[in-house]
Amino acid sequence: FPWFIPCFGTSTAEIFNYYWWDPAPDNEKLLRQFAERIAGKEAGPHLRNAWKYASRAIDHSPELNQAYFIGVYYIGPAHPMCADPNAKIPEEFDTFAGGTFVLKPTGNVPVFAKFYRRMANSLELAAKEVDQADKLAGKTNRLLLDSEISNIRWFYRTFRSTANYYESCIIRDKLLALAAKKDKSPEEIAEAKALYADWRKILLDEQENAVESISIVTADMRLDPYYGVTGNITPGKFHSKDMIAKTLE
């Protein structure tokens, strides 16, 4: 997809060429051979498995986003968790690409949260497969394989963030509603304590996810929206690593 640059020389651009032919090669045979060519005989099957899990994740995607370049599914762990919907958003987010953050998730939030978690779960398996490929592949001629590995790793981190964000906002809004009540029953207090414990668990998971994503996004310029895309979307004023640092803060 050439809006996300650079596209030239990627596996996506190359594999698409085969589908101009009629008859096209057998999908599975071609992809197995292609993965082996990129990663080598030992690591190739792990790369092929990673592609399968990534495709399975896309099957669970609950929406075609109304705005492509906004929200946590665009900037991933760089997106603020917005624990306080009335807080002033730091400059690192407010001036980025016209303001790409959102204070509340969109769509059918409870349903979307479930499906984004399914995406994250599939992509976690994909990330584990490329980790294995990374260990087994040789150290030479690594450019294309490294580009595959960083894509999958970032894809996983992005949708782990997305699932965490949706689930976090659901709990946040429930807690805000409970906090606004003047008189709370013992059952409501118990519910609030349970929600708080769940919320804290999600936020700690996102903290870990954000920390581990910094090295991924700094190693591959294609993943950093700072560099912008074609069309009418302007580049950001801050790198993803700067926004991640502010999110962690």
Please sum up the structure shown:
This protein is an all-alpha fold. It contains nine helices and no strands.
Layout of strands and helices, then pairs:
Layout: H1 11-17, H2 27-39, H3 44-59, H4 72-75, H5 91-94, H6 109-136, H7 143-180, H8 186-219, H9 240-248
Describe the structure.
The protein is mainly alpha-helical and 249 residues long. Helices cover 61% and strands 0% of the residues. It has 9 helices and no strands. The longest helix is centred in the middle third of the chain and has 38 residues, at 143-180. The model has no long low-confidence stretch (mean pLDDT 88).
Give the % helix. Answer: 55-70%
What profile does the largest beta sheet have?
none
Portion in strands: under 5%
Number of separate helices: 9
Order of helices and strands: HHHHHHHHH
What would you report as the Rg, rounded to the nearest angstrom?
Answer: 20 Å
Please tally the β strands and state the result: 0
Structural class: mainly alpha
Low-confidence stretches are: none
Distance between the termini: 34 Å
Mean pLDDT figure: 88
User: So what's the overall shape?
Assistant: elongated
